[in-house]
User: Fold this.
Amino acid sequence: MPQQAKKAGAAKIRSAAFRRVRADHQSELAEDYVELIADLIDEKGEARGSDVALRLGVANATVVKTLKRLQESGLVTQEPYRSIFLTGDGWKMAEDGRRKHKIVEAFLLALGVSEETARIDSEGIEHHVSEETLRAMARFLVRR
Amino acid sequence: MPQQAKKAGAAKIRSAAFRRVRADHQSELAEDYVELIADLIDEKGEARGSDVALRLGVANATVVKTLKRLQESGLVTQEPYRSIFLTGDGWKMAEDGRRKHKIVEAFLLALGVSEETARIDSEGIEHHVSEETLRAMARFLVRR
DNA sequence: CAAAAAGTTTAGCATTGGCTAAGTCTATTG
DNA sequence: CAATAGACTTAGCCAATGCTAAACTTTTTG
Assistant:
């Protein structure tokens, strides 16, 4: 194997991790939105655009634009000036996000960090943990 | 306290986590770049744009554009057609990234995940762990 | 039930981060 | 030392995600 090819091969393997992180970022926003919408529906019976904007800390117009994309991706349905609904796929994604979120947050608490830090860090981490790591965290929760 | 204000206050607290995640994303790319550049300098004596592109898995042109921004932010210095250098701030950021990366990766390994998963997940997680969580991870590594 | 308030959408702009294609510079090598 | 190969840059495109200001609906209320 020529030196050149070996070098390229090793770099390709490394770049996979970065590619994965970039891909995660794309789904991250969608997951945050559907998870939040699911929470709002469960808490208050409906999800309004302005509640989403308030909780995410972005402008209303940003929510409108993003929801349009999520609608095209088949995650939510919405009619002008009405509240937001999740599709089957949307619920599936929301449930999955909640599941991950719960495990990560409980794990961080078990590790001994404060409630506030667990809440904040789990929000960032949940989109970057593989199923394998989630299993390891769940195992730790049971056995500790 | 009126109901309205209480609601807004609670939402504001929650939105802080999302704001933080968005802010992290901004610095994330910069951290990845400087960390990689530092690694290249240490490994091969210099960091070339094409090596950065290869390892990150992006096009050369993307690297050029990003480096221009990093130069404006005072993290790297570069002259056309020459290799890339880190400023003092750049080195500081790189060292900090490496430190976090090492802790997170070692922690995941200690938790029992595979080497490959530890490598991939730590790449995504390192930008979202607070100092408090890092301390908890370091404690776990010592005491386990 | 008309006017005002609150909520939602549209329009238009900026930045980031990705790409390809084409051009330019540097280094190697015949 | 000229030609070529490789590295780098420029130009120009696109999509995503944010914003403000203005317009439009819906809801509330006097």
